């Protein structure tokens, strides 16, 4: 039917738009629209097979629920197609007014079908999101640029924690290391929400700031960096720390904090003997609170170590799925002189009003949504390219 051709052409156009982000293999998918149609029909068949055989099978039921959106969109498209008057019937109509009415009706249905094709594409893109984690470890680290980099890291930290609140997520700070002038060396946050990884994964990488520091007397612009790390925490990952594996030391806290802090052994240092990992906390006046905070930091470090170990085995697969969106390189520039923020991974990724962007509200949210859409398209192209029709598997 010609409407399938319209859908093929639209998918081809959308995929071509992001060709620079896909492999050469994926580019062939954009031209082989017959394969895309087979893929859609295969999803439809899988859905209806699951509908009659999901009793007591939670995994099958979950898969059916994921497929429901794209299958319902396909069925609505087919219902609209059935309302179209064929060219043969139009040619047979002898009444000019009636034929004109039929043509106008066809135009309405064609427009509805075109919109429905967009819905199908969106449902396919949602289906490409196959990663779901109950929480993520979100890290902010100052990079090159000394104190200016640490000040920038603090601004990023505030932007993202505002964004977490904007999204209504629960989060807990595990580490927060500041500088004397108010900058941030390092922060570690656990974000507890099943949607967090999906929205935050594309924020990982190096963020660059270009501005004239307040301490720069000659007016020369400096370039500094800070990095963001986003590590997903799978549901089955748990950290159990045995007391016998810990070496706990107490000492007097250093730096500002008042007479009580500096004259009692309130600071706590904990060493995890099996791994050699060490953490310290002296930000609280109470030794007990510092101990609790240090244990949380140790747990986060051990969890991160396990996650990174597990992640290394999946690195090649993830790179193929996510294209260049998660590369550990400069991903975004914040230029204060020009009052602009530029994301280097997408076309038209420049916007203005840095102060508004750093509030972590709608401006950041809209950019993250764009990045997520781009990533889904890349993943979908890769998914279709790797997919084989059932009849071809044993050939």
TrEMBL record:
The Prokaryotic-type class I peptide chain release factors domain, residue ranges: 252-268
Keyword terms: Coiled coil, Methylation, Protein biosynthesis
Sections of the chain in a coiled coil: 26-84, 288-320
A GO CC term assigned to this protein in UniProt: cytoplasm
InterPro entries with a match to the protein in the record: PCRF, Pep_chain_release_fac_I, Pep_chain_release_fac_I_sf, Prokaryotic/Mito_RF
Protein's name in the database: Peptide chain release factor 1-like, mitochondrial
GO MF annotation, one: translation release factor activity
Domain of life per record: Eukaryota
Gene: LOC115626162
Family listed: Belongs to the prokaryotic/mitochondrial release factor family.
């Amino acid at each position: 039917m010609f409407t399938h051709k319209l859908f093929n052409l639209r998918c081809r156009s959308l995929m071509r738009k992001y060709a620079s982000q896909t492999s050469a293999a994926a580019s062939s998918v954009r031209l082989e629209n017959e394969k895309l149609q087979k893929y859609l029909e295969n999803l439809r068949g899988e859905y209806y097979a699951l509908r009659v055989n999901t009793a007591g099978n939670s995994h099958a039921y979950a898969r059916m629920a994921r497929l429901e959106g794209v299958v319902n969109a396909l069925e609505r498209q087919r219902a609209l197609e059935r309302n179209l008057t064929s060219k043969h019937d139009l040619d047979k109509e002898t009444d000019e007014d009636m034929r004109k009415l039929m043509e106008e009706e066809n135009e309405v249905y064609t427009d509805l079908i075109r919109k429905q094709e967009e819905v199908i594409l969106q449902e396919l893109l949602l289906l490409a999101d196959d990663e779901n984690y109950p929480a993520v470890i979100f890290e902010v680290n100052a990079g090159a640029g000394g104190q200016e980099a640490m000040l920038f890291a603090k601004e990023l930290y505030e932007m993202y924690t505002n964004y977490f609140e904007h999204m209504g997520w629960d989060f807990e700070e595990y580490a927060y290391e500041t500088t004397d002038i108010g900058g941030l060396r390092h922060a570690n946050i656990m974000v507890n929400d099943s949607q967090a990884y999906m929205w935050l994964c594309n924020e990982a990488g190096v963020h660059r700031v270009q501005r004239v520091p307040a301490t720069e007397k000659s007016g020369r612009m400096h370039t500094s960096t800070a990095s963001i790390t986003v590590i997903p925490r799978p549901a089955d990952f748990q950290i159990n720390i045995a007391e016998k594996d810990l070496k706990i030391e107490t000492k007097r806290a250093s730096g500002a904090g008042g007479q009580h802090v500096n004259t009692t052994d309130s600071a706590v240092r904990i060493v995890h003997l099996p791994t050699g990992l060490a953490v310290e906390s002296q930000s609280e006046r109470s030794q007990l609170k510092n101990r609790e905070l240090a244990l949380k930091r140790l747990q986060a470090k051990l969890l991160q170590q396990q996650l990174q170990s597990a992640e290394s085995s999946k690195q090649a697969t993830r790179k193929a799925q996510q294209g260049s969106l998660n590369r550990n390189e400069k991903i975004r520039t914040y230029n204060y002189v020009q009052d602009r923020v530029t994301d280097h991974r997408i076309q038209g990724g420049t916007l203005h009003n840095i102060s508004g962007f750093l509030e972590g509200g709608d401006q950041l949210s809209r950019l993250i949504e764009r990045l997520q859409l781009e990533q889904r398209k890349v993943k979908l192209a890769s998914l279709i390219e790797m997919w084989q029709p059932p009849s071809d598997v044993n050939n």
